[in-house]
Amino acid sequence: NKFITIKRHIEGAPQESDFELKTESISLSVQAGSNDVIVKTFYLSIDPYQLNRMKSYSSSQKAHSFAVGIIPGEAIDAFGLGRVVASGHPGFEKDDLVAGVITWGQYSVIKGAVMLNKLDTMGFPLSYHVGIFGTSGLTAYGGFFQVCKPKKGEKVFVSAASGSVGNLVGQYAKLFGCYVVGCAGTKQKVKLLKEKLGFDDAFNYKEETDLKSTLKRYFPDGIDIYFDNVGGDLLEAAVFNMNTFGRVAVCGVISEYIDAAKRAAPDMLDVIYKRITIQGFLAADQMNVYADFLSTTADHLRNGKMEVLEDISHGMESIPTAFMALFSGDNIGKKIVQIAAD
Ligand code: NDP
Question: Record's superkingdom (predicted)?
């Protein structure tokens, strides 16, 4: 079995030299009654939060219960999907398609089949199930509808808007009837947001020098909802431009993942006087709308109302580059690595 691991804990932006490809010999059979399942990986979801798990927790970073630290040299667990090659668990049989927490490896031995589910493709391509129907989709749907609590016609700002979660937030918001502006880090991404994904407007935040006045330009009447994927200066500028009773959904603060010293400091007096709600949330909190999310999203796709934005790399060796792309902005849409074909 080949798998990717980290050589050491990572501080700052991840580098190719932080990773290594390891080979181990594993048995592809399980003992009857063991409850273990062995999965052959087809697709892996590449996610920014993994960087926080790769840091050394003896540093100023605090370990969070949802993000148990990754141990250098060991397999890295991650969301993905594949096929069962052997099962000692009564809920799974050889050849079942499954999705859940597997590893950055060709094969994963899932003890007790924990966090593994049978996959119903609903007739959609397999890769959709690590992106739009996976954690990214649920995060966008639950975060937008349950945390942002939108009303039709409200003005929505989304950062990292061409990314996996961001592009879906923008699409759900438009379909719901909001006015949506996104920001992204290249001209090509801005064009895509406006011309393909139906955003009302978009801008390249890297071309702006004063984000507070930039947002004032795009939202002369203020922002009602900010879906934050980035943190840092964008969060501060958005809070500055929020309307009374505005909502900020803090989904992620990717600009702060590579710089432990950097933390957004929005003006808290603004938060008080404008009665702004700032709420962090996790995809895991959104399971109460999971069935609704799947059926609504499937309907939108079947009716041609949503676009699927995927950025797929191939092969185990491409995992480090695919992961680094999230922090340099080299991905467009959901970053996925295909390890094997079905
Ligand atoms: P994306 O597909 O959006 O990829 C990351 C993008 O972030 C990059 O493409 C880049 O786009 C942007 N970015 C990177 N560094 C910076 C920076 N310093 N400043 C501004 N933008 C930057 O990733 P995901 O959609 O998977 O994740 C988006 C966010 O949501 C992350 O913060 C992630 O941790 C969080 N998340 C949270 C979940 C939850 O349960 N709360 C679940 C899933 C994701 P650009 O060209 O715009 O710079």
Answer: Eukaryota
Q: What is the CA(335)–ligand 1 centre distance, in A?
A: 11
Stated pTM of the model:
0.96
Residues 6+ apart with CB under 8 A from 308: 128, 131, 132, 301, 333
Ligand 1 neighbour 160 (Cβ under 6 A):
yes
CA 84 to centroid of ligand 1, rounded, Å: 31
Token pair of 13 as six digits:
């932006």
Q: How far apart are the first and last CA of the chain?
A: 18
What letter represents residue 298's amino acid? A
User: Domain coordinates of the chain in residue numbers?
Assistant: 2-131+309-338, 135-284
User: How large is the ipTM?
Assistant: 0.99
- Measured at the alpha carbon of residue 247, what is the angle toward residues 243 and 248, in degrees to the nearest 5? 110
331 CA distance to ligand 1 centroid (A)?
Answer: 10
Helix axes 135-142, 164-176, angle to 10 degrees: 40
Q: What is the helix (H) or strand (E) element at residue 325, kind and residue range?
A: helix 319-328
Give me the CATH topology for the region 135-284.
Rossmann fold (3.40.50)
What's the token pair of residue 188?
């090509």
Q: What is the pLDDT of residues 231-276, one digit of tens each?
A: 999 999 999 999 999 999 999 999 999 987 889 999 999 999 999 9
Integer CA distances (angstroms), 167 to 136, 139, 188, 308, in order: 10, 12, 14, 9
